């Protein structure tokens, strides 16, 4: 029944699930698929067995069901939630308080702010950090001003802002950093100069850098816009990169609308726990 309304394609960029290691992201998607595909009773049985299967995860001991995530995924399937909202709830399954994460395209700062809330603990101060960058000075200023409005000065100190190209991300993070997530929201700055956009060459360099610095159990997350010139080629580069990652170490997938050809495409590359 639900499948009739399901206008989105979810496909694995590297091959299908091959191992049964503890992967929160995989756990989440698997749960979701089962929930829409099964009758309620059998669904509950499967959910119980999944809980048992994953409850030994050393770093992620989250409970089922995950209401926020299910709401957003179902909302996305029915055209009521945006790709960025899906990305944020997926991040929540991976990011822990105290983590270091990278916003590779901070733009107006919405993603940076969401990440900041996930890594910091109000009572502790800067236990986690967001390294946020953008090639445009205007974007850095916009992000800075959003943070000024949304958080106090102490919390803002947990965000490090850099006016650089994301292909240089390794130059700005401290040596031997354990980076939990690198997130890209590709394209142009909303409300800004539409001719300044992410381009395939530097996006690919940045993806390679992200692959090098990401810790096991980490995530490379992308929202790829394909409505502007060059967007489709950039998606192809992203897909080719994700498809080339070894399935023994990575789980890579995308979410794409079938009947909205210009809708943004979500790509997730999850690095398995060691
Ligand atoms: C879609 S916007 C990002 C939106 C942002 N994440 C937010 O929450 O508001 C894309 C951003 O990528 C930036 N950008 C383009 N090329 C870049 C590059 N090579 N390195 C870093 N940022 C880049 C643009 O300046 C633009 O601000």
UniProtKB/TrEMBL annotation:
Coiled-coil segments: none
Pfam families, per the entry: rRNA_methylase (PF06962)
CDD domains: AdoMet_MTases (cd02440)
Name of the protein this chain belongs to: tRNA (Mnm(5)s(2)U34)-methyltransferase
Taxonomic source organism: Cardamine amara subsp. amara
